[in-house]
Amino acid sequence: MTSFKNGFIAYNKRQGRSVDEIKESFIDDINGTGLIFETYEPIGKGTNLECEIYLHHPKRCQKNIISSTYFVAKVIEVREITEYSGFQDNRNKYRVKIQIP
Fold this sequence. Notes:
Radius of gyration: 14 Å
Helix content: under 10%
Structural class: mainly beta
Order of helices and strands: EEEEEEE
Shape: globular
Largest sheet: 6 strands, antiparallel, barrel
Strand content: over 45%
């Protein structure tokens, strides 16, 4: 199974008809089982996210082509990361895994 790490995700929480502010994060991993990204704020397991991913394809042509895909996903795993020391204010970060439909 191959994975892809060269892109970022824009997302917001969906709660009925209302949506949260749009947030962005770099993609840590995307493969056949889902997509993993990191965030400074926890997102509850089971939360529905409205997502758009932007992928960079440097090998497909000489120009920096970015493709985007929109989808709604469900958070299936959240892990707190406390081992990092290089982040601003030493805030905890969270690794969030979403299931891609």
